[in-house]
Amino acid sequence: MSIKIIGGNRHDKFITHYIIDWCVDHFNLDIGIDINISLELGIYTDRHYGTCIDNDDGGYDITVCTNQSLRDFVATIVHEMVHVKQYVTGKWKGTGEREANRLQYKLADRIWKENVI
Q1: Which residues, in sequence order, are CB contacts of 13 under 8 Å at separation 6+?
Q2: Structural domain of residue 41, as residue ranges?
Q3: For the segment 22-44, what is each residue's pLDDT rounded down to a tens digit?
Q4: How far is CA 89 from CA 28, 36, 50, 76, 109, in A?
Q5: How many domains does the chain contain in total?
Q6: Which of 82, 90, 96, 110 has the most beta carbons within 10 angstroms of its beta carbon?
């Protein structure tokens, strides 16, 4: 698995890497996948603070807004990793947002309880 993180500060990158690793393990994702994360300062519209797309190289490109509380930042990364899981497994209903919204804070809180970050 390759994780490439650009943008953000050292602390943001550190947290992001641990969350991505945790999600890959939690969702039993193939360790051969490539994940590119862009950490950007700014506020997204329509209450979206992240995006996830599958790229032409067979990997996934995630963008996450860093201008949010730490809990929201973690939940946003988890939310986008739920989308990665959906792409990898090919299993989701509609846009996949319902599942991602349902799991983002539940799993973010679990990450805290497990002292991942």
Answers
A1: 5, 39
A2: 2-113
A3: 999 999 997 788 999 999 987 66
A4: 10, 19, 20, 20, 24
A5: 1
A6: 82
